[in-house]
Amino acid sequence: MKKNYSLFSAPEKVVFCKKCIISNQRPNSTIEFASKNTFKKETIDFNQNGICSACEYNEIKENKINWNAREKELTDLCNKHRKKNGYDVIVPSSGGKDSGYVAHMLKYEFGMNPLTVTWAPHLYTEIGWKNLQDFINIGGFDNILFTPNGKLHRYLTSLAFKNLLHPFQPFIIGQKIVGPLMALKFNVPLVMYGENNGEYGNKIQDNYKPKMDNIFFSNQDINKIYLGGKSITSILKDTKFKPNDFAPYIPPKIEEFKKKKVEVHYFSYYKKWDPQESYYYAFTNTGFKPNTERTSGTYSKYSSIDDKIDDFHYYTTYVKFGLGRASYDAAQEIRCGKITREEGLSLVKKYDHEFPKKHFKNFLEYINIKEDEFWKIVDNYRSPHLWENKNKEWKIKHTVFEKKA
User: Fold this and answer.
1) Domain coverage including residue 242
2) CA distances from 394 to 13, 25, 382, 387 (A)
3) Integer Cα distance of 174 and 40 in angstroms
4) Is 379 a member of any domain?
5) Please, are residues 96 and 88 in contact by the beta-carbon 8 Å criterion?
6) Which member of 158, 175, 263, 332 lies 3.0 to 4.6 Å from 367 by CB, making a disulfide possible if both were Cys?
7) How many domains does the chain have?
8) How far apart are CA 397 and CA 402, in angstroms?
9) CATH code of residue 222
10) CA 312, 172, 151, 132 torsion-angle sign
């Protein structure tokens, strides 16, 4: 096999966007039920001018979308689903800035009565728990905190780390399913998530879809569903877990959606999405507070701060794709005009590579491995086209601040 091959089917030639600082190594979408043998991802598109699709869409957002017309669409949608009694809409919410913005806007600006539902973090941080309580008590929301089977969730998280170097996979799957599951349970035909991932570099046309793709909810065959790179069928054979234990990770049947006419929408289709503005809004209206210290691997204090394991999701992303948390934060803030590209370059250089030491012991205990095993697994996923080992030290080959974009 050639020396500089890519482990994850990303382009072997690394290119950085000329407007923000993201590279063509960014995965197109989150891993859903992928096994290790099918670990292939499309990557962010770049046009002929070297501009990423996220930056292209940002220009469309600023200049070509009639947001007044989109808001009218949202008003019509709310009018269609608003009830005299009971809940009008399900809003998956962690109590963070983005979901706080969505829930508060729907309730107080559009007159809806939302039921907010939370898929619990692996390990709550102190600030994360406080923000959820303030979201409920200051923001004024009914909330259901759904905590999956802890024994199974730890097992799946450990599998996902070992087989995919993606410890957040089980959480992401549950977070995506919990809204529709609760909609079916409580007979609420409207679910509203925050932003479509197309905002950050998936296919631009995804942003023109107000609804989540129903294809996600078409597979209920446990023989075909993989969690942590292993089929549910195999997990059942190797463990004492039962099929019913996996219910929160299995998408609802599409026939159920059709029967109850459940629609899953993205708020970012209707209102121009800006994460920092969401923070200002949530801070003012829902009691949301940033952390007292910046998050490991980046410069911000308010994004994804409720889970101690979240830092390792971004660190493993840095290992696999050469893009750390600071890259993702800086890219979206450059697009939104909050910082310049030069400022972004400096921040990425300073923080992108940083290892999250603070919760390392918690993470090792949670997935039940030793430190030497952790590093052995991590190093096994360093793609040769991105990393080289010199004098027993790993060095990344391509960085946005050292290579001309």
Assistant:
1) 67-270
2) 19, 19, 9, 7
3) 21
4) no
5) no
6) 158
7) 1
8) 9
9) 3.40.50
10) positive
Distance separating alpha carbons of residues 247 and 230, to the nearest angstrom: 16
Per-residue pLDDT of the chain (405 residues; tens, 9 = 90+): 456 667 787 888 999 999 999 999 998 643 333 333 334 445 677 777 789 999 999 999 999 999 999 999 999 999 999 999 999 999 999 999 999 999 999 999 999 999 999 999 999 999 999 999 999 999 999 999 999 999 999 999 999 999 999 999 999 999 999 999 999 999 999 999 999 988 888 888 888 889 887 656 666 677 788 999 999 999 999 999 999 999 999 988 888 888 899 999 999 999 999 999 999 999 999 999 999 999 999 999 998 899 999 999 999 999 999 999 999 999 999 999 999 999 999 999 999 999 999 999 999 999 999 999 999 999 999 999 999 999 889 999 999 987 544
The single residue listed with the structure tokens 């299995």 is 250
The answer to whether residue 85 is domain-embedded is: yes
Q: Is the distance from CB of 329 to CB of 303 less than 8 angstroms?
A: yes
In a domain, 75, yes or no: yes
In a domain, 61, yes or no: no
